[in-house]
Amino acid sequence: MSAAIEAYLAMLAAERGAAANTLAAYRRDLEGAQEAIGDLVAADRDAFASLGAAWSALAPSSLARKCSALRQFCGFMIDEGWRGDDPSPALPRPRTRRPLPRLLSHGEVAALFVRAEEEAAGERREAVRLLALLELLYGSGLRATELVSLPLNAVPRDAPLLTVTGKGGQQRMVPVSSRARLALSRWTALRGDGGKLLFPSTGKSGHLTRVRLFQLLRALAARAGIDPEKISPHVLRHAFATHLLEGGADLRVLQTLLGHADIATTQIYTHVDSARLVALVNARHPLAKRS
After folding, report:
1. How many angstroms separate the CA atoms of 104 and 84, rounded?
2. Which residues are catalytic?
3. Which residues pair with 207 in a beta bridge?
4. What pTM, to 2 d.p., does this model score?
5. Is the pLDDT score of 32 beyond 80?
6. Which residue has better confidence, 60 or 169?
7. 151 to 40, 45, 160, 177: CA distances (angstroms)
């Protein structure tokens, strides 16, 4: 990796508080561009333009992400005085539509919990841990990384709130339901001496990984009679948001609970709710039946 890319990633970490996953994504995109056109500090406008052809097989969303990373990096190079020109206008600008999140019905969520509760009834350590994870994903809308890396001291004792460190190192308070608090209490009694992390593991990170969480949820879905392809930690976060909005939650409150910096990110759930309402009218309206 070039010194310029190294310096840029260090800036993102120090000044913007970028998370490890964000830094890894920028690293992949910038190194991929460098492999295609050579040193990014020296590459000319034509070289940057050639990336459109080099990345032509990518999905529009992936291409847009890579180009965005490069544009920001170009701005950094200019700020540092490494370049006097900005070659980023030569990059392609694919049009992307933000896809609606995958949805889980209330019945599917209920089936997941029924199965998880049945398996945890015997107080088996792994089953109780999975129930606690599920309760926090759907009950508090946590991101997968936020959940698996929770410190033990984030668990509430008296106040029904959880302290979460989200993207950019920003902290927020999220409510914890009585069900989730009970599941956490059962888990902390069984977790043993796991150090300072709520969900410890013997791996390099010291805590349960996002990949392992993904695997556990899909296996639970299969045992609950649900298509595993429909389930992921992020899908449960979407379900938390969508079902709250359906129940009348305020969009600004939802933004705070999810830890979104921009209300525009949260507004995707208004489209989800609108789509549900349109489907309802088409299925139940008297004229729809006659047609």
Report:
1. 51
2. 143, 167, 234, 237, 260, 269
3. 200
4. 0.64
5. yes
6. 60
7. 39, 47, 16, 18
